[in-house]
Specification:
alpha+beta; elongated; five-stranded antiparallel sheet; 417 residues
Length: 417
């Protein structure tokens, strides 16, 4: 056999001395690569499984919460329907009907005693406060049911009292018949009874709320009226106090001026100081006045000396058309007063030292009287030199003034201090 015929029977692992033949390098590299990919694939599959389980858990939790919420809402709706339909009272109502039927059949007299006790209890409860009954009715539905049962018992007792007089058998028949008929309508009667009590309570609460609101509004109105009255009284009191202070201040100033004048007159008489006093009896217009004034165009007043000083003042003073001239220098006290009688709100005059205004008197009388009689008085001290003059002039023109020979309301005087 040749080598070519034996070549198919020779294995790759056959070698000299039983050593395996060498494998190619590409086979080794592919095996190593497959071993490295196996953990990576397994890790990826594990991560995907964990993510899927976690997502499923979250979805199930959300689904359970949603189902719980739906269940709670359904439970609330069922409870509201049961309360609205009165299903909560069906068991108590069945027990009541059973006990009432047994009691009516076996011992009707005991039923009468129970009903009489219930009447006494209802009478005592009726004497209690109405507000307490409303609170108990609103807070406890079992009380409403008990009251309803009492009313049913009273009606049935009145029926049984009429039928017990005939015979006991008839009472049983009537009791069974009435109980059977009442079984059909007892739930409707109880529902209407609760509804009427609820409406009565709502009306009462609404009337109480309206009454409290009305009382609150009345109280606010009363407080506002009291505050307005207090404000008006305070303003009136302040105005009155202000006017009284003004009047007291004016009267005090007048008294001080009169006291000063009297003291000066007394001192002048004791010391024989030069003095002159004039009663104002006429006036001259601005054009006829001996002294022309550019800034003042009022009338100029002229006076006549009194008889007591007529023989003395001429030695110290000279008078010409209302202008008084001083013959001796010194400090002089000058005073003047004019009595106005006109319809003007404002009047006044000025005492001039030569061409200069020395003293000014201004009086305001804001009244609605047709004639306003009032006086304006002023006085002061001035240092005069020899042959210096003073005169009296009104601020306005053509003002009605009380000027007479024996006038003691409008005057003018000077005293040497």
């Amino acid at each position: 056999m040749t080598a070519e015929t034996l070549k198919p029977f020779i294995t790759p692992t056959s070698a000299v001395n039983n050593f395996p033949a060498k494998q190619p390098a590409s086979v080794t590299h592919s095996q190593r690569r497959s071993k490295q990919l196996i953990p990576i694939v397994l890790s990826s599959i594990g991560v995907l499984l964990v993510i899927g389980i976690f997502s499923l858990t979250i979805w199930q939790t959300t689904r359970v919460k949603q189902l719980e919420n739906n269940l709670n809402s359904l439970q609330r709706e069922v409870n509201s329907l049961r309360q609205r339909l009165g299903i909560n009272y069906l068991e108590d109502l069945a027990e009541f009907q059973k006990e009432y039927a047994n009691l009516l059949i076996h011992d009707p007299s005991k039923l009468d005693d129970i009903e009489s006790e219930d009447d006494d209890l209802e009478y005592e409860a009726g004497m209690d406060d109405v507000d307490d009954e409303d609170d108990e009715d609103g807070g406890n539905e079992n009380t409403d049911y008990d009251e309803y049962l009492d009313l049913v018992k009273q009606e049935k007792a009145s029926t049984q009292q009429t039928t017990l007089q005939t015979s006991t058998d008839e009472n049983e028949a009537v009791g069974s018949t009435s109980s059977a008929s009442n079984d059909d309508n007892v739930f409707d009667d109880f529902t209407s009874y609760n509804e009427s009590k609820r409406k009565r309570k709502e009306r009462k609460s609404r009337s109480i709320a309206e009454l409290s609101h009305e009382l609150h509004n009345n109280k606010l109105t009363e407080l506002k009226l009291n505050k307005t009255e207090q404000t008006a009284e305070t303003a009136a009191a302040q105005t009155h106090a202000k006017k009284s202070r003004q009047r007291s201040r004016q009267s005090r100033n007048q008294r001080l001026l009169i006291r000063k004048t009297k003291s000066i007159d007394s001192n002048a008489m004791t010391t024989s100081s030069p003095a002159a006093h004039f009663h104002l009896n006429r006036k001259l217009s601005h054009h006829e006045a001996p002294i022309k004034m550019h800034s003042y165009q009022g009338d100029m007043y002229i006076g006549q000396a009194t008889a007591s000083s007529e023989n003395q003042w001429e030695q110290h003073f000279s008078v010409n058309n209302g202008v008084l001239t001083v013959l001796q220098p010194g400090l002089y006290y000058i005073y003047a007063q004019i009595c106005y009688n006109n319809t003007h709100d404002q009047n006044g005059f000025i005492i001039f030292h030569g061409q200069n205004a020395f003293l000014q008197c201004l009086n305001t009388v804001p009244t609605n009287m047709p004639q306003k009689v009032h006086t304006c008085h002023t006085s002061g001290l001035i240092q005069l030199q020899q042959n210096e003059s003073i005169h009296l002039r009104d601020i306005h023109r053509d003002r009605n003034v009380m000027l007479r020979e024996d006038n003691n309301r409008s005057y003018f005087g000077i005293i040497k201090v």
